[in-house]
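Quiz preparation item.
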C-alpha cells in the first residue's frame, strides 16, 4: 500500500525551454486535502505540450509536461469525495470547481482555478508535489501526465465509466472535447453548412469529425503538410488546400470556392496569421470563426476594424465549452456506446520510455495522436 507515502517513479522533465525532455527518477508526494494521486495508464502528446516545452506558452521550468491523461486513482487526500482509489479517471486541463463565476454561469467553462493562461505550475495551495534530485519540480496545467504518478486537485479530475479502455480514452481528456466539442457543442455546426478547418493535426481532425457528425455539406481542410490529407478526407474533409501551393491567399481561395465565405471557420494551429485567415474565410453576415489553437504568449491579433460590424462572430473556445467534470465523462460513455468513434485519431501507441521517438514522429508530422503507455 503506497497511500500516505512518497512514491519514487519515472517522469519526463523539461528542465529549460527548448531542451529535450529527460526521463528522471522523481519523488511524488502524497495528495494533500482536496487532491488526488493518480497512477497514469496513458497520455496523449498534444500540440500544446510541444509548444509549452519550447517555452512558447506560459510554463514555469523545470516542470513535468503533459495534460491529456487517463489513469487510476491511487490515493486521495482529506475531503475528496468525487473519486476513490481504484476509480478510472481523466485529467482535466480546465478544472470545474463548481464555485467560481465561470462555473456558476450556464455558458462557458473557463474555471477561475485553471492554471494554463497564465500558468503558476503549482497546486492550489501554492506548492508542488514533485521533487527530482532534491529540486522542486513544477506541475503543468493542473495535470502533468508524463509521469507514472501525478497529483492533481480533485476539481481537475473526471471520474469515468469502469468499462473505458484507458489505453485510448486519454484523448477524451483534451483532444476530443477540444476538437469535436468545438464543432458540435460550441459552434453548433448546422446541417448542410459549409466549414473550413485550418490545421489537420490531432485537434483539427477531431473538429472535422464534429463537423461531419453535425451534417456539414462541405468541409474544407487546410494544412501545409499534405501527408495529413488522406486521413482528413477519410474523416470527412471534402476539399484539401495547401496554402503554400496557392497563388492567392488561402482565405481568398476559400471565399471563391464557396462564393460567399463559409458558415463556420476553425483555427486549430495557434498562429495569429492563420486566425486572421480563418476570420476572413467567414461569411460576412453570419459566419462564425472559432479559435481553438493557443497562440504564443504575447502574440497579438490585428483585425480590420470597420468590417467587424458586418456581423461575423469571433469566438475563442477551450475544451468545446464543456463544463469539464460534468460533460467529459459523458463523452467517454458516448464512445463506449459507439456514438463517437475516436479510434481513427489514434495513429501511434508507444511505451512511455520511447517518449523521444514519439516526439520525433510528432515533429516529422507523422502522427495525428501518439499515445504513450505506462
Ligand atoms: N498553415 C496550415 N497548417 C499548418 C501551419 C500553417 N501555417 N502550421 C502548421 N500547420 C499544421 C501542421 O502541419 C499540423 O498538421 O497544423 C497542424 C497542427 O497539428 P498538431 O501539431 O497535431 O497539433 P494539435 O495537437 O492538433 O494542436 C493544434 O490546438 O490545442 C491547440 O495548442 C494547441 O495550438 C495547438 C493546436
Ligand atoms: Zn470554477
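Solution:
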Amino acid at each position: 500500500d503506497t497511500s500516505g507515502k512518497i512514491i519514487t517513479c519515472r517522469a519526463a522533465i523539461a528542465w529549460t525551454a527548448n531542451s529535450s525532455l529527460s526521463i528522471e527518477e522523481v519523488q511524488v508526494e502524497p495528495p494533500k486535502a482536496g487532491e488526488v494521486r493518480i497512477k497514469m495508464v496513458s497520455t496523449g502528446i498534444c500540440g500544446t505540450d510541444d509548444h509549452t516545452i519550447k517555452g512558447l506558452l506560459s510554463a514555469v521550468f523545470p516542470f513535468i509536461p503533459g495534460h491529456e491523461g487517463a489513469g487510476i486513482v491511487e490515493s486521495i487526500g482529506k475531503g475528496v469525495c468525487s473519486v476513490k482509489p481504484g476509480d478510472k479517471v481523466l485529467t482535466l486541463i480546465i478544472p470545474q470547481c463548481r464555485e467560481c463565476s465561470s462555473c456558476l454561469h450556464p455558458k462557458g467553462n473557463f474555471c477561475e482555478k485553471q492554471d494554463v493562461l497564465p500558468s503558476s505550475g503549482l497546486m492550489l495551495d501554492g506548492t508542488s508535489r514533485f521533487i527530482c534530485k532534491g529540486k522542486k519540480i513544477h506541475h503543468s496545467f493542473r495535470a502533468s501526465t508524463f509521469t507514472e504518478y501525478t497529483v492533481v486537485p480533485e476539481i481537475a479530475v473526471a471520474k469515468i465509466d469502469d468499462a473505458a479502455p484507458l489505453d485510448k480514452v486519454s484523448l477524451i481528456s483534451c483532444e476530443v472535447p477540444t476538437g469535436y466539442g468545438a464543432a458540435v457543442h460550441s459552434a453548433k455546426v448546422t446541417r448542410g453548412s459549409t466549414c473550413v478547418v485550418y490545421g489537420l493535426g490531432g485537434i483539427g481532425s477531431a473538429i472535422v469529425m464534429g463537423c461531419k457528425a453535425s451534417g456539414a455539406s462541405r468541409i474544407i481542410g487546410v494544412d501545409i503538410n499534405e501527408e495529413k490529407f488522406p486521413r482528413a478526407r477519410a474523416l470527412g474533409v471534402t476539399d484539401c488546400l495547401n496554402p503554400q501551393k496557392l497563388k492567392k491567399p488561402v482565405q481568398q481561395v476559400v471565399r471563391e470556392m464557396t462564393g460567399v465565405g463559409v458558415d463556420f471557420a476553425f483555427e486549430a494551429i495557434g498562429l495569429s496569421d492563420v486566425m486572421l485567415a480563418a476570420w476572413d474565410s467567414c461569411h460576412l453576415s453570419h459566419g462564425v470563426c472559432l479559435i481553438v489553437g493557443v497562440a504564443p504568449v504575447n502574440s497579438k491579433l490585428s483585425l480590420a476594424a470597420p468590417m467587424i460590424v458586418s456581423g461575423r462572430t469571433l469566438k475563442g473556445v477551450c475544451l468545446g465549452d464543456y463544463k469539464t467534470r460534468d460533460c467529459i465523462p459523458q463523452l467517454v460513455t458516448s464512445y463506449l456506446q459507439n456514438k463517437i468513434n475516436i479510434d481513427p485519431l489514434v495513429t501511434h501507441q508507444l511505451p512511455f520510455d520511447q517518449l523521444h521517438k514519439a516526439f520525433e514522429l510528432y515533429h516529422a508530422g507523422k502522427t495525428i495522436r501518439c499515445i504513450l503507455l505506462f
